[in-house]
Design a protein that fits this description.
Shape: globular
Helix content: 55-70%
Number of strands: 2
Distance between the termini: 39 Å
Order of helices and strands: HHEHHE
Strand order of the largest sheet: 1-2
Largest sheet: 2 strands, antiparallel
Radius of gyration: 19 Å
Number of helices: 4
Length: 148
């Protein structure tokens, strides 16, 4: 028989899911991981792995930026680097990063880390604000046939 979970524990358990939900949102909405440009399985795999590489690179840069954020005693809130800002910066220069020598890549990534550590978002634990939901339409429509 499975363990029973008390109703009072559900809000705390939901908070543990937030990181996973945020990652799904990034993959689906920002990286458009469901909007493939091809119908061939090899091309779809290539697009998928490129998106995952980009997501992992953003996560590494965000982690480094978070560690460089200066904490002040006067601040009421904790801060974190803005993931959307980092993603947009990386998307704009990923081709240049992949084609440049290692020393130039290192300099570019260090510059992005420094900039991202200055563009911060407030961390709001235990947020209770209600969300407004709009009816959304399907974003990605393709005339291509499914490869599956």
């Amino acid at each position: 028989m499975p363990e029973q979970i008390a109703k009072e524990n559900f809000p705390d358990l939901y908070q543990f899911r937030w990181g996973v939900e945020s990652k799904y949102r990034e993959l689906k909405n920002r990286l458009e991981i469901e909007a493939f440009n091809s119908i061939k399985p090899a091309s779809i795999q290539q697009e998928f792995f490129a998106a995952m590489y980009l997501s992992n690179l953003v996560a590494v840069i965000k982690s480094e930026s978070d560690s460089k954020i200066i904490v002040s005693i006067n601040n009421r809130h904790a801060y974190q680097a803005n993931r959307s800002y980092i993603l947009n910066r990386i998307k704009n220069c990923i081709v240049h990063l992949l084609r440049s020598p290692l020393s130039i890549c290192y300099e570019m990534i260090c510059r992005i880390v420094e900039e991202a550590s200055k563009i911060c978002s407030i961390i709001r634990p235990d947020r209770k604000f209600g969300r407004y939901r709009k009816h959304t339409r399907r974003r990605y429509y393709s005339h291509m046939k499914s490869c599956i």
